[in-house]
Amino acid sequence: MSQGTTLARRFPAGFLFGTATAAYQIEGGHDADGKGRSIWDTFCERPGAISTGETGEIACDHYHRWREDVGLMRELGLGAYRFSISWPRVLPSGTGAQNEKGLAFYDRLVDELLANGIRPFVTLYHWDLPQALQDRGGWTAPAVVDAFGAYADLVARRLGDRVTDWMTLNEPEVVAYAGHYVGVHAPGIRDFATAVTVSHHLLLAHRAAADAIRSARPAARVGIALNLSPCEPATDSPEDVAAATRADGYLNRWFLDPLDGRGYPKDMVALYAPYFDRARELEGYHGHLDFLGVNYYTRRLTKAGEGPLGLDRVERAGAERTAIGWEVHPTSFRALLVRVHRDYAPREVFVTENGAAYDDVVVDDRVDDQARVSFLWRHFVAAAEAIGDGVPLRGYFIWTLMDNFEWAHGTSKRFGVVHTDYRTQRRRIKASGHRYRELIAAHLAARAAAAAT
Ligand code: FCB
Question: Whole-angstrom Cα distance, residue 348 to residue 17?
Fold first, then answer.
């Protein structure tokens, strides 16, 4: 029995293997067919914002090559595909008049996926806020909450006859803090109090969108994709242990607790008191998530330190790292899934992102990305172990289908299981993509054989 078969058997019947993407990172077509500007179109124009000086104006040109890209997915044998809708493509001003041509693009994409037996998982917000809304305060303005609800209603009504699985937001922590505190993402604001308020508006927006989707489409399944990581202390000193608890509160509990009906964590409400006093607005809310999406890349090590959170991140010397510098730590992945299950018991869990950047090269027309194969396989094993531990994991989306515009890194960081040649837009399935195809095929074969006996 091949190694692939042994691993494949560890995933239950019906387990979905897929890939994930985001609109701004792949679509291009930045001003095609009436699309409005997004905050990423604006941010990319800021000198120095993108390390390579690039923009996502063309990216993978998926807006024009979607059919070929769904063909690649079929070749890989994907059971599901997670993608995001560009809000300014369907509502160029963020609110008000809809753009029929933009909506029609997603109609075609969804139809093509379904025709190829691929289940669509749709994210409503993967970071490309309409610039028109940013001009009115963006995520810092309370009005964004209703705007997001109305946008969710529009998309759910349009696609909800064919799409069942929805994620409201991708990584609200990154939206809030990378965008409004560290300033390395759009809109590039640097203010802690603003970032905390944004995190709150994002959770209120999740609530508005979840309500809108459910009332438009009672059969819909609503989730959210959170970036979660185990937060461990760098040493066992009481100061570092307390810092790790704060890091966990900041990254994990601040989002998980209110979605689980507990309101914001009390220790964090106290810590944020100088910046934020609206915790009451989420009291009594329970998200009743149909599934929790977990985006996992690496763990976090922390020690007591500076800043509003009183901590600094520590990087372990000599640790194995990917090309973006993130530590490879699959055992933390298993620990995270088990912890989320133990502390929050979500009905279902999907790994909505996991993957790795490596400096891939094309040699003799091939990309032999064995480092990525090794990364992915160790994380698949960790996920299978978590299933053995009782975690109701139902699917796994690799980040990402094809190399794409990696935000502030431009196209310099490649995460795809398919290689993108940006000069020609030629796609080449990498070794990792071929191995993934074999795993998916082995899983289907093992399940069919089990069902026949
Ligand atoms: C995640 C993002 C995704 C991609 C990966 C590498 O934080 O959701 O768009 O950038 O990181």
Answer: 15
| Ligand 1 atom with minimal separation from the 355 CA | 6
Q: Which atom of ligand 1 is nearest to the CA of 25?
A: 9
Of 421, 397, 404, nearest in space to 127 by CA: 404
- Mean pLDDT along residues 269-291: 98
What pLDDT, in 10s, does the model give residues 312-370? 999 999 999 999 999 999 999 999 999 999 999 999 999 999 999 999 999 999 999 99
Clarify whether 353 is annotated catalytic.
yes
Quick one: what percent of the chain has pLDDT higher than 90? 99
| pLDDT tens track for 224-251 | 999 999 999 999 999 999 999 999 999 9
Please identify which of the residues 27, 112, 171, 385 carries the catalytic annotation: 171
Q: Which among 76, 11, 123, 74 has a CA at the least distance from the CA of 379?
A: 11
Pick the catalytic residue from 27, 232, 353, 385: 353
CA of 353 to the centre of ligand 1 (A): 8
The vertex-383 CA angle with 451 and 347, nearest 5°, equals 75
Alpha helices in 77-185 (DSSP H): 87-90, 100-115, 131-134, 143-159, 172-173, 179-180
- Average pLDDT value over all residues in the chain: 98
Distance 82 CA to ligand 1 centre (A): 13
Are the C-beta atoms of residues 337 and 302 closer than 8 Å to each other?
no
**Which pLDDT score, from 0 to 100, does residue 2 have?**
67
Q: Please say whether the beta carbons of 314 and 234 come within 8 A.
A: yes
- Using one digit for the tens of pLDDT, what is the confidence trace for 99-157? 999 999 999 999 999 999 999 999 999 999 999 999 999 999 999 999 999 999 999 99
pLDDT at 4: 79
Which residue among 173, 295, 404 has the greatest number of ligand 1 atoms within 8 angstroms of its CB, and so is best to mutate?
Answer: 295
- The binding-site residues of ligand 1, defined as CB within 6 angstroms of any ligand atom, are 22, 25, 170-171, 174, 227, 295, 353, 399, 406-407, 415
C-beta of residue 302 within 8 angstroms of C-beta of residue 243: yes
- By alpha-carbon position, which residue is closest to atom 10 of ligand 1? 406
* Strands 311-314, 300-304: pairing kind: antiparallel
Catalytic residue status for 171: yes
Q: How far apart are CA 176 and CA 185, in angstroms?
A: 10
Spatial distance between the Cα atoms of 19 and 410, rounded to a whole number of angstroms: 20
Specify the pTM.
0.98
Q: Which one-letter amino acid corresponds to residue 240?
A: D
